[in-house]
Structures are given as C-alpha cells and as structure tokens.
Amino acid sequence: MGFGKFQVLILLYSGMAYAAEAMEIMILSFMGSAVQSEWNLSPHENSIISSVVFAGMLLGAYSWGVVSDNYGRRKGFLFTALVTGGAGFLSAFVPNYICLVILRFLVGVGLGGGPVLFSWFLEFVPASNRGAWMVIFSFFWSIGTILEASLGWAVMPTLGWRWLLALSSLPSFMLLFFYGITPESPRYLCMKGRKADAVHVLESIARMNKQVLPSGELVSEHTSGLVLDRRGEPDEFDEHANDSQNTHSEQIRKNKASFNRSFVSKIMCIGLLNTLLSRKLIRATLLLWMGFFGNSFTYYGVILLISGLSDGDENCRNIKLHAGDEETNLYKDVFITSLAEVPGLIFSGVIVDRIGRKLSVVFMLFATSAFLMPLVYQQNEAITITLLFFARILITGSITTLCIYAPEVYPTSVRSSGYGMASAVSRIGGIISPLVAVALVNGCHKVEAILLFEVVIIISAIMVSFLPFETKGRSLKDSMESLPS
C-alpha cells in the first residue's frame, strides 16, 4: 500500500520519541561540568553521571525488547515513555549526588526502549525504499540533539542545570497524549495468530493511504501447515484449521500458553540467546554486537570530546579562561557540532540504498578515523571543532546505517529482542566512552584517548565487513526458516 498518510503519522509519533531520547543523551554534554562545580565532584565522579545512563540503557534495551516481542510494540514504548519522563523530571529535584546517579540510571533504563520504536516503525515501511525512510526517521535524533543544544545554550547560563533537566523531560510525556490512537504492528499481530486484528490495522492503512486492500487470506510464514512459535518451533495453531477453532479467544489462550512455556527462559536470557546464537544467526549476531559496541563507543566519545578537549587542554596547559567565556564557548561548540548530524544523515540516506548497508558503514568508520587522527597533535580551537564536526557527520551516518541493518537481519518473532540485545551491547560502549573521553582527557592523556578511539573504530569496521549478507532491497522475514542459510 506504499508510504502514505498513515506512515507519515507513524513517523511523526515514533520520531518524537526518538528526539526525546536524543535530548536526554545530549544533556550529558552540559550538566557534567555544572554539577561538578556545584558539588565539588572529582573527574571520576563526573564521568559516572554519564556512565550510569548507559548502564541503565544496557538493562532497558534487553528488557523492553522482550516486553515488545511478548506483549506488543505499543506496550514496550508506553513503559519507556513513563520511565524516561518520570525519572528525567524527578532528576531536577535531587538533593545530592547519589540521588542524581540513581535517577539518571532509571532514565537510562527508559531510554533503552529506543529499539522498540525503531522496530515498530520499520514494520510499516515498504521494502523498496526502507533504508531511505529509516534514515529520515533518524533525522528526529538530530532534531533532538539540536533542540537540546539550543535549550542548553538558552537555559544553562540563566536558570541552571535543574531547569534543563525538567524541560528536557517534557517530550517524553507528550508521547502519552497520543498513545491511545497508536496502532499495533500488523506483523506482530499476525505472528501472534491475531489475524483479525492485523487485518483491521491493514484496513486502516488502506483507508488513510486511499488504497484498496488486496483480496485474499492473511497468512503467516509457516512450515508444513504449522505456524512457528516464538522459539522457531512448530506451534499447535493450524493456519488452515476450521474457523471455529480459530476464534480470537482461542488464539489468545494459545499465545498465553506459548509465552508461559518460555517466560522463565526469557527472563534468564536463555531462550533469546539460544535463538540469536543459533546456526543461522550466530555470525550476524556476534558481528553486530562488535559493530554496535564500536559505533556507540565512538559516537558518544565524539560528543563528549567536545567539552573534554576544551576543558582538558586548558587544564593541562594551565590556561585559565573567564568562566563566562568558557561556558559560552562550550555551548557554541556543542551547538555547532550538533548541526553535523544533519549532513551525516543526508549522506547516509544518499548511499544506504545505493551501495548497501555494510559498505556504507565500513566506509564511514574509516573516514571517521581519518578525521580524529590529527587530534593526537595539539590543534587550535577552530581546527579541533572542524575535525570533530566532520567526525560527527561520519559516525552519525555509520551508526544510523547499522541501526537500519540490525532489525532487517532478524525475523519478526525476535526482531525487537535481537535489535534490543545489539543495542544493549552498544550501551557497554557508552558506559566506557565517558571514562575515556572525559577521565583520560581531563587527566592529560589526550593522545592515549584518541589512539584508543582509532583502534576501536578500525576493529569495528573490519567486523562489519564480515557481516553475512546485505539487506538492501530485501523483504523482511517473519520466521527463522525463511532466513537465508
């Protein structure tokens, strides 16, 4: 039914959530130095404020993926909005450092639900130009970073970091106003045996897009006439059974039974890991994990290097600037480099459906490495910001393209969980990144920090080049059996 009005509304809703996530991440560029000054924190304590957010995202990325694959995409992003908005708003009223760390960890747990929205939007987009539309979806992340940079520049000098935290949490609450009218993914409904509900959503898409729903019966991918359950094994539900046996209540009962059988193993990660590390997926899964780790480590490192190189270089060279001038330079530099995300996404959108996902990521990672290498030597502020600007263009394009590839490589039954697990591994890179970008640079070890980034980037590029197959132009798969060998 093409990409029409229905998909535009889905894009706006999920994009608003993605922008809200970006705003919470970009806060880390501003609040660290302000909180450090107010509470006399050490560089290590300052870096922990950033690291705990990614630690929370590590937990949330897996948890919300499992919730999404078992209870639906809508339930997944409902809870993420509640947790992110609530903990983000309460962070503005913390009395001490410990409370701030705890609440920022909870914000991270909520932010871990980002892959759920990505998978939800992906399942409504036609395969022919899916890559381009997913890049457009990623523009909302850039909108969020630019909004947060603008908000920080306007709020921090006058109202302080508490007001910034409170105002930045509002977009997450806005998602709740429109939650009641958001549809469930028809792919998810069909995989759960809820064909009547899936057809209802498809009819809504057809009406809004002014298209005619094709005639025929909606079926799931199946083997020997049997629908596959969540573990990729034949379920008792027969697609061609008598209609009286396919009532909605019967389908719900069977879904509950299937979920109860696997609930314990899901909680213990055993069932999910068995699927993700199965013969058909193990190569893609392990290489994706390494690729996501390196991309996330570098992306957040480049963001944090903006303030880290500025403050660290001044401290190491015993240069003292007026506090007002120092803050103005920081806000200006963060805003300028945030603008780099726009050309980064445009560049990614131009090449992703032309040369493919894998080659795009590899090329942009090596180019990022080339722009970071001159920072090993002492540069003036203009050259430093220029190099970081172009590095951020390329690493933004790289991580965006990898985020498109990841959900495409997994079948519908484990799409959110598989992408969520890869995203969880990327958060490990986010946890470690502040310790390098902030702690090492502030400790006058800039050369070691930059060289570590270079090593991680090159290894990540090599790992991505060995991913098993290209997903450009391929239709999404619903079951393990439909995946290529």
UniProtKB/TrEMBL annotation:
Main location: membrane
Location of the protein in the cell: Membrane
Signal peptide: 1-19
Occurrences of domain Major facilitator superfamily (MFS) profile (ranges): 10-472
Pfam families referenced in this protein's UniProt entry, alphabetically: Sugar_tr
Top-level lineage group: Eukaryota
Alphabetic keyword roster: Membrane, Signal, Transmembrane, Transmembrane helix, Transport
GO annotation, cellular component aspect: membrane
UniProt-listed PROSITE patterns: MFS
Membrane topology: Multi-pass membrane protein
MF term (GO), any: transmembrane transporter activity
SUPFAM superfamilies associated with the record: MFS general substrate transporter (SSF103473)
Keyword check for Transmembrane: yes
Keyword Cell division found: no
Transmembrane segments: 47-65, 77-95, 101-122, 134-155, 161-182, 286-310, 330-352, 359-377, 383-406, 418-443, 449-469
PANTHER family assigned: MAJOR FACILITATOR-TYPE TRANSPORTER HXNZ-RELATED (PTHR23511:SF5), SYNAPTIC VESICLE GLYCOPROTEIN 2 (PTHR23511)
Listed name of the protein: Major facilitator superfamily (MFS) profile domain-containing protein
